[in-house]
Amino acid sequence: MNALFNSVSNLGAATRKNIDSIGLATLFLLRIVSSLFTGLVSFKQVIKQIYFIGNRSLIVIIVAALFTGMVVALQFYDTLVRFGSVDLLGSAVALSLIKELGPVMTALMVIARVGSATCSEIGIMRNEQQFDALDCMAINSYRYVMLPRLLAALFCVPMLTAVFDLVGIGGGYIVGVHIQGESPGAYIQGVMDTISFKDVLVGQIKSLVFGLFIMWIPLYYGFYLHLNQKNMGAEGVSNGTTQAVVMSAIIMLFSDYIVSSLAL
Amino acid sequence: MVKPIITVEHLFAQYGDTHVLKDVNLEVNPGEILVVMGGSGSGKSTLLNHMLGLKTPTSGTIMIDGVNIFTAKNKQLRNLRKKMGVAFQGGALLSSLTVADNVRLPLEHNTSLDTQTIDIMVRMKLELMNMAGTGHLMPSELSGGMLKRAGLARAVIMDPKLLFFDEPSAGLDPTTAVELDELILTLRDAMNMTIVVVTHELESVFKIADRVVVLFAGEVVANGTVDEIRNSPDERIQNMINRQPNTQRDDGEVYLNRLLNKDKN
């Protein structure tokens, strides 16, 4: 009987803890957003973060997009050739990239590169009392540290997604036209005819939502690292970063389903 | 009678079930150097964090310059903090900025001074800290002593009337520690600052303090001038001064309970 009580009690405690965390994370986001209205955002900081998130992710995104486009084209070609519909290759590659693979793959790459780096940087700042120092200097940490990162992510992730889509379609072209011998005109025409403004818009809205989660969750995990004393120190930063990356990826994929179901 | 600039009244603080501060009462008068002294785990850093408004107590009040820092509105607290400087134990410099950019941060955010004036003020403060020519370095390129001095330069860049310094000489070689002590005295004398120093380094305490508050297990066990502390009959203070280990032992039953894991504390 005691074991049953303990299990129920543990479940209740875990549920309460999770609800607390969601509430705290929401408040954290609201504080960042409201800091936008308390003064000027440091343009220099935003540019610095855009360089870090956008420019320094570009090569990784291009390489990932090229191979993703190539493998998608290869798989679609193999399927379409069975139905004698190889002419649809351009449409299939472009649609799958713009509506789904582009935003998701870009988000995953940015989570791996930027999300982890951000969480560990913010966690180390917390460990080294840098946020305490900002508070004591009457500097709003939300506006000075968090907001530029969030704005930069909201700006960069859709941009990187657009790059991913274009390069991916290019990768599909290489496989479809140069390797499998499809007509270049058919491939390009397929892309042009199928893609509507709505498809591009949905892809961009998705990437905007992903951009929010990609930055919000690592910032939250890093900033509140000190709430659990066990999380302090190098191991704590490492654990926090792992949790942030996993949680960002899961929430990003969940939000992908929600946005897709709303858009269809 | 001089009105104290800081008043701590009946301050209690706890982490979980552990009571860290127990009914702490103290006052800091304008222009004096108050040293909060105590061993590891005595609660001195917790007391400092409460004075800075970084932690909320279980109960009690801290008034700084007439403002209750636990009930003050955000704007009031921000205005108060502009009059305060804090030098953290490890410097707490922002790792992504150079030393000069760290030092100029409070001026950039809290004043409307032009860049040229800020540059001159930064150079002056770095010069004062004996750190001329290091403005371009990143915090990761500095030694422990330089980090503390850069942190101190940032803390005094706004010429605050109140300076808090956490463990100024901890982990430093004796020469650098003495240099920092001299610097603290210079700041008090030249800039008429009120300074609160938290430390366990006895040499520093006896050199810089006008008044000393001794914390032991979260309680104030002495509050007086350096001579009064030196001559205190309290065994715990004498042990601390004479660097004797704590000889107070738990009685047999408490010890046994702890071994048998019956005592959760």
Automatic annotation (TrEMBL), chain A:
The chain crosses the membrane at residues 22-43, 55-77, 150-175, 201-223, 244-263. This is ABC transporter permease. Belongs to the MlaE permease family. Pfam families: MlaE. One of its GO terms (molecular function) is phospholipid transporter activity. InterPro entries: ABC_MlaE_roteobac, Permease_MalE. Its main location: membrane. The keyword Nucleotide-binding does not apply. It is a multi-pass membrane protein. It is found in: Cell inner membrane; Membrane. It comes from the Bacteria. The keyword Lipoprotein does not apply. GO terms for cellular component: ATP-binding cassette (ABC) transporter complex. Keywords: Cell inner membrane, Cell membrane, Membrane, Transmembrane, Transmembrane helix, Transport.
